[in-house]
Amino acid sequence: MTTPRIRADLHKIEQNTRTLVDRLSAVGIRVTGITKAALGSPGIGAAMLRGGASGLGDSRVPNLARLAASDTSSRRTLIRSPMLSQAACVVGVADVSLNTESVVLDALDRAAAGRNRRHGIVLMVELGDLREGIAPADVPEAARAVLRHPSLRLVGLGGNLACQHGVVPDDRNMGVLTGLVDAVEARHGMSLDVVSGGNSANLGWALTTGAVGRIDELRLGEAILLGLDPLHRTPISGLHTDAFTLTAEVIEVAVKPARPWGDRAQAAYGEPPARTGSGTVRQAILAMGQQDVELAGLQPPAGIEVLGMSSDHLVVDHGDHALAVGDEIDFGVGYGALVRAMTSPFVTTVEHSGPPVPTTDRAGAVHERRAG
After folding, report:
1. Which domains does the chain possess?
2. What is this structure's pTM?
3. Residue 177 pLDDT more than 60?
């Protein structure tokens, strides 16, 4: 089997989704499964739906097109403000989109009218993280602007925190969103279907506050895929954190000096990695680099230390592991590493549904290459 490759365990993804859906349903919140880290994989999207997700969301129109081609029945949401140039494509593959700009609303209205359909709009509110969002004071008038478009339907309000500046969801900022929902409904004599509180970073708040207010949806990607709380990158109790495994092949094994020699300047990606110690190391090179995966999110097995990475080479100290050219090493991945690996044209994705297994923290393995 080709390497590098990333294996996605659909059973574990389904289990993670079901666990989170069950926990959140107890407080009146449904889950939209986010597939953007998985390149809009229909298989992964289907696993989320089997786990009870009420719909799927993605930030890229081509990813939504992949999902739409495999399943026309589930609700699809574009979770990034639409590009003006893609308005016609957006209404073709998404039922709902998150929006902030009036000129984009105009374009979506025209595109939806051309398809004889109504497109759902969730207005995003700025709650302090300084990414996308309308100022709270401007939300009622922005809602009026949506209602003036005959081919658009105002389905709700939403917010997003933690992605840009790490602002933590809490009773205060979520309370602002709840208050705006009440104000919009009272002002315009309507009922909103969706109050999308945020992403996986909202989980801790939602499951402990005791006062979720009007929040009735969360957009969950990282928590489902990796079983982690994005605020601190800590495992979420009861979830699998090893649904993805990235495998690379050894192309060189040698005993080398612990430190480089000669005058030193910039390396391929800026400052060179620190090499300390004395004597020698048992060094191996794997055929995987920055074009394939983000170094910071790569999690080697116990007993293997990453020494550095260039575009196409990953250098490790393999310690007491006996390695030969052609052997493979399995790595865990963090969110950034997962996104890079899933979007690299050089990494093969393999999806499988294994039997039910106990929840584990992370699987890492070194193994000989298997034929096929």
Report:
1. 9-231 (3.20.20.10), 244-367 (2.40.37)
2. 0.94
3. yes
